[in-house]
Design a protein that fits this description.
globular, about 350 residues, Single alpha-helices involved in coiled-coils or other helix-helix interfaces, about 55% helix, eight-stranded mixed sheet, homodimer, alpha/beta, 14 helices, 3 domains, 8 strands, Rossmann fold, Helix Hairpins
Chain lengths: ~350, ~350
């Protein structure tokens, strides 16, 4: 009970994923999970939203309910194509998601759009809300747009988005877009939860591409050059050629592939169908070679491990002897008497002697 | 001894900062640390480079030597101004660092330039090396440019850079630039090790700024709009006005300040002195209000804590019962029988019952 409280406090601070001991929920609550799940499966959007809110909750009392809901969702989840989308501000990410998403729902698919945004609360959300950003899509009956959870802590937001993804799949969505705003390590988190990672870039004024962060290109499975309309077309074609040559310098993936470069205009609705075709082709090849299933499994294991590590650090921080040693050593480090490395060695010696 | 080996293996994998038990180094090695330190203090660049290589080492046998070297450096470190510099590719970061650095060394300061770059080995390093990127600066006798460590793991690279910073200070450098390439959470890591964080941005073709990631703006203490030359000037002035208005929407810092927006041209060498003046002003105000010292202390404590947490997870992963449970649960998670959340609860129960 005490450690459950501890974890709950830490999780409320966004530090650890709550991993309290399993406490059977009251009968009434269990009924409501059953009810929620049945309605979610029946296509009730309100139930889906409430279910996502439940798994996002940091409250200790919600943990077992959330776990049960996810246990029920698991066997009927996993059937979607999960697409991560990243791109720096200015590349036209919202417009592209609106156009690509509209294409997808136009083909009778059901699409959920989730966002991983660890920005601090003070600037959370765009000036326009998610629905205004994607006006066409948000008006479509087959699309569901869920704003980013307000978890604050990065790993927390990513976990919440993973779990929201399972619930969307249980609710029958067959395509999931997970958008990252590119802060902190959100690209890496999103790459680790999707089947295909789409990088958006923009042909700039010079001979270089705008908005491609170093290290990002090799994470991309499919690349789209955006705003390829009007005067921009020639420039984009030159940039695409350069980009393709640059990609040749990167190692191919295990199936011998390199990211395809696609020219798209969201405004003129050009290249959108071809872009979706490239995403489907990538996923189909992975499925044919067993790589799709392998990646899904690996992602789930990594996710489990990360949850445990976060809980572990939380538990460590609650130990009284760790607290007092940390306090004493912090004072020495703060005053410059001891290097952080030396203090860390001494602090870690507690773990070593006591319980490792 | 066994856990020392374990930690050493983990650290070689870039997973944990090595925190092995202190093992007194052989006399001959200790002499060489003494010698290295004396030469480093005397301004020997070769000795500084070898010292940095030692603290970057993941070898268990180097850990105590590195700790001793840092212990000796600590009392004579901390005297520099530490400036973090970030900006997306295309904003002209290398050129700006070359120009700003040349201005700084021109004022008789000694400048060290370090880089935090967690990019994978396959694309590590720019096509041009660090010295070609900063041609003027690298030719100056008062400048020292150190390429990014090849640590691979992000936290590892950040720790190595922090320790390299202490050594540069002990070697007499009074200004340190820490550049981030903006991958993963490197901005956050760099913000946590400097006194002032400089964000570079570029006035784009439209009415929006290129290369400003969401969540980055509120981390900036000083902002520079780059390439403000020729035709670009008017556009940059408009963008600067917009940016200043946008900054008014963010909360001020505890001293009531908001990031200043500076127009600079590295090519025309314009605005560079004023930009440095803004950085000095920011740091001076912090020093006057005690915020400088407070931040340095807080950063050192966070650094210690992070080292311990990484070592802790490493030790956990070496426990046989954890390994076997992880293996069994991983299989269930991989096959989709169990949610990652449920498996994490079960795995964490081992820690709870055995040693928490």
């Amino acid at each position: 009970m005490e450690s459950a409280d501890a974890l709950s406090i830490l999780s409320a601070e966004g530090f650890v994923t709550p991993l309290g001991p399993t406490k059977p929920p009251a009968r009434r609550q269990r009924d409501s999970v059953d009810d929620l799940f049945i309605r979610l499966r029946g296509g009730d959007r309100g139930a889906l939203s409430r279910a996502i809110t439940l798994v996002e909750s940091a409250k200790e009392s919600d943990q077992e309910l959330a776990s049960e809901l996810l246990d029920r969702a698991l066997p009927v989840s996993g059937k979607s194509v999960r697409v991560g989308i990243t791109g720096s501000p200015g590349v036209g990410k919202s417009t592209l998601i609106d156009a690509l998403g509209s294409y997808v729902v136009g083909r009778k698919a059901h699409l959920a759009v989730l966002t991983v945004d660890p920005s601090s609360p003070s600037t959370r959300g765009s000036i326009l809300g998610d629905k205004s950003r994607m006006a066409t899509l948000s008006a479509h009956p087959n699309a569901y747009i869920r704003p980013s959870p307000s978890g604050g802590h990065l790993g927390g937001v990513a976990h919440q988005t993973r779990e929201a993804m399972l619930l969307c799949e249980a609710a029958g969505f067959d395509v999931i877009f997970v958008e990252t705003v590119g802060v902190g390590q959100s690209e890496i988190d999103v790459r680790d939860m999707v089947d295909c990672f789409l990088l958006l870039a923009l042909a700039g004024a010079g001979d270089e591409l705008q908005g491609i962060k170093r290290g990002i290109m090799e994470m991309a499975d499919v690349i789209a050059l955006t705003k390829v309309d009007g005067d921009n077309r020639t420039r984009a074609e030159v940039a695409a050629g350069q980009l393709e040559r640059a990609l040749m310098l990167l190692p191919a993936d295990p199936l011998g592939r390199r990211a395809s470069v696609n020219l798209v205009s969201a405004v003129e609705r050009k290249g959108i169908g071809d872009l979706w075709g490239q995403i489907e082709k990538y996923v189909d090849e992975d499925k044919a070679k067993g790589r799709f299933e392998w990646r899904r499994g690996t992602q789930a294991v990594t996710w489990m491990e990360d949850m445990v590590h976060r809980a572990l650090i939380g538990a460590w921080l609650r130990r009284p002897e760790v607290q007092s040693a940390t306090e004493a050593l912090s004072a020495e480090v703060r005053s410059g008497e001891k290097t952080p490395r030396r203090a860390a060695i001494e602090l870690f010696a507690i773990a070593r002697s006591a319980w490792l």
